[in-house]
Design brief:
Strand content: 5-15%
Largest sheet: 6 strands, mixed
Structural class: alpha+beta
Helix content: 40-55%
Number of helices: 16
Strand order of the largest sheet: 3-2-4-5-6-7
Order of helices and strands: HEHEHHHEEEEEHHHHEHHHHHHH
Length: 433
Amino acid sequence: MHELTELIRQDMKPALGVTEPGAIAFAVAEARRHTHGPVRRIVLRLNSGMFKNAFTCGIPGSSEVGNAHAAALGAVGADPDKGLECLDGVTQEQARQAKEMVAAGMVQVEVAGISSRIFIQATVETGEGEASVTIQDAHTHIVRITENGRTVWEEPGLAGSPEDTGEAMPLIHRYTLAQLREYALTVPAEELAFIRRAFEMNLALCQAGLDSPRTTYARYLLAENGGQLISRDERATASLLCNGAIEARVLGLPQPAMSITGSGAHGIIATMPLYAAYRVQGYPEEKLLRAAALSYLVCMYIKEYSGKLSAFCGCAIAAGTGMACGLVLLRDGGEDAMARTIRNMASSITGMICDGGNQGCTMKGVVAVDAAWRSAGMALHGAAIAPVHGINGPSPEQTMRNMGRIASPGMTGTEKTIVEIFDAKQKKRGGHA
């Protein structure tokens, strides 16, 4: 099996709700497993991106939102063996208990630092002791477990700080755009069959959004598409399938998304607009799978530069650029057309902020679909921003690197400002993150 196939396979995972609340609940649930007796207090330390993304995000199994509620649900109702789907099966009684814990001030949430590197430290205190779980770099990647201050497990060679860097070159960066495209066009089709599950899962999530009275954008986009799930309008269908699923996800509806780079919204944007084009235009399924594989890989390429949880909207920028390249592949465009598409995307939506996982992600998804359709369409007709302009580089690889650098380290100050705004909102309403 090709190493890029395995890279996609390992990264593509189901996630129930937005991945940040799921990761918080998972960390707390794992810490709870190492304690005995009733919970007295939960202390949560998060990097800025984790704090921000879960701040007002819907949580499956609950009508509440935010970091503290995700943590409380992790203590009373999550199953850590389910990973990012740990909140699957939460009962109304457990949701009530979690709400009471938060109201009683039993959950303390702190920002551990301004960083795009994933960091969660969840400490659960009971009358009989305490346990702590530390997660770093990936949403369910546990690096340390302590019981009553004693380390009972630690990953060998642990760096320690959420600010530490210096990792080896990521596998994806060893490839050029030309090589990624060649892989997508030539890899045996059967190696990509597993990607079908992403379309099935994300389509079901979109339908859940359309069926729910809680969504607003999904029904608007359905009306805009003539009341049809699949119409003859390729872009309107793409926006509906993509953003109906995103809205359902950020509201916390109890259906999973297929994530990529640790994000359900990234996974949705990377796949569903391509699925819409496939349905409207009647492309062969094999071509769809190849386009999705390329979309995932370009998304990963940019994300490895920007960081998993940065101040810019990787859903629109990284996944949107990947999806735009996939669209070019569906339309039989070559490497030059893809390079032009990347420059068009880099010069248009790079810099769009991420202000957490919330209903605003739907609007960002709408912009991403529109930008991708424009960028790809123009590029296929030779219209593109010249490499000399703006953040574009002399090669598509350099352009993607520059896109990532805008986020990290470029938008560290923006991230700090966003967190300060959230902190002020939290203090004003006297609530919990």
